[in-house]
Amino acid sequence: MNKVVANADEAIRDLQDGAVIMSGGFGLCGNPENLIKAIHRKGVKNLTIISNNCGTTDKGLGILLQTRQVRKMVSSYVGENKEFERQFLAGELEVELNPQGTLAERIRAGGAGLGGFFTPTGAGTQIAQGKESRVIDGREMIFEKPLKADYAIVRAWKGDKWGNLVFRKTARNFSPMMCTAARITIERSETRSTCTEGGTASCSFGSRAFTVSTT
Q: Who's near 41: CB < 8 A, 6+ residues apart?
């Protein structure tokens, strides 16, 4: 089944208000910029975005903040974005902060079908408030729930027509695990080819994935 579509706008055609979206990227590295711009053009609102950070004031996911399309951010780092700061302090943006490793593992757990996991990270801090706590092997640990999404938007190095992807170097970041934790994955590859030709990581998606070959 050929999953390649003509452009980013067609790839997000069924994305609706209130969707939960996982967005790959670390800082501005590996961001699916063309898909973010397509979401901006579509104008969908009340989005929940799960991503390491929210871009900068005028780049990456930051452009969705400027147009008030984001209701909630689930992140681990929120610096370098003045609009994010302003909306959060004004009570206009809901924010769920996670330790970076915890965020990654929550996404992985969602993709693996797990019900959650115990971690010592954050035990005894504000992160632990309202969460189940246990002492395991002499260490206090808190229970973290998995994260899942309606859509994952990612940028890959290579992709083929069946939806298999290869991610390269730092641009890999959270993207492979996000692909497994979302109902639909939408990706933009730098090249369209056979994904057995090297790279640092690969993953394949179910039949509801789309791929984007143009900007």
A: 9
Q: Which residues face 191 on adjacent strands?
A: 158
Fold of 4-115+147-212: Glutaconate Coenzyme A-transferase (3.40.1080)
> SS3 of 51, please?
coil
CA–CA gap between residue 35 and residue 15 (Å, rounded): 11
How far is the CA of 159 from the CAs of 126, 179, 187, 189, in angstroms? 41, 13, 8, 6
Q: What is the pLDDT of residue 107?
A: 97
Count, in order, helices (H) and strands (E) of the chain.
6, 13
Euclidean distance between CA atoms 209 and 191, whole angstroms = 17
Q: pLDDT means per 10 residues in the chain (215 residues)?
A: 84 95 89 93 97 88 95 91 93 96 97 97 95 97 98 90 85 92 90 56 43 42
What 3-state DSSP class applies to 186?
A: strand
C-alpha R_g of the chain:
17
Domain residue limits, the chain: 4-115+147-212
For the chain, helix, strand, coil in percent to 5 are 25, 30, 45
d(CA 74, CA 52): 8
